[in-house]
Request: fold
Amino acid sequence: MFDLIDECGEDLTSCGYETVKLNRFDICASKLFVDTAQKAKRLGFDKGHYFIMNAPLLSSFMEEHREILLAEVGYRLEFLLKENKIKKKSRILFVGIGNPQIVADSFGVRAVNKISFFPYKKNNRIFKLMPNIFANTGLNAYDVIRLVVEAFDISAVFLFDSLATTNISRLGTSLQFNDAGLTPGSAMNNFGMPINKTTLNVPCITFGVPMMISSRSLGVKQGKGAKTEIVLTEKDAEEKVEFLSSLVAQVIDSWLE
Reply:
């Protein structure tokens, strides 16, 4: 199972995959609309609109990327919002998936924490949730989210999570966002319940950043009898997670203003 749709190993061009190269820092913006059940089955991804931003020079010119990525991500987010009829006045639940105690898995929690929030404001329609991981709580993220959606009559769910990649150069340099939802732990074959419009009955917008890679993807051989894979990240993971979570939160805040 793959987290990034452009790493699924299929010929995406024949499925309508398009890439535009921006003018600075070799940033590329790609999109793929999985609009049929046949495409979804072939690619192994749920139906939806997928956008991917790749910024290979992010490590060297981090702050210089901010304004460019804010504009490009914001523009594409507007498309997803219109497609799913999500408005500023909707009752929105922002969910940070992942383990906040592990830097590489904390993107989701950090992003949600950075989104502006005024719970005491009259007629507040924004809600935040950080369900943590099953190993720490004994609760599946889907079950917790579903209960909140039903109890508070939520109109849309925004999900934020760290992803896995099969390409070490993409650690902390890509951002994938879509309206297809996500399945927590799927890239590490630790499948949770899918969290999407089908399972929750409300639109789900997902933001993910690849921060982890398995030893298998790097060609590292493990000893005989090893039952689990080694999961690795990069040495500047803290800086990347902090920057990208801040960037995504800023995009959301700009829309909510």
Observations:
- The chain has one domain: 5-256.
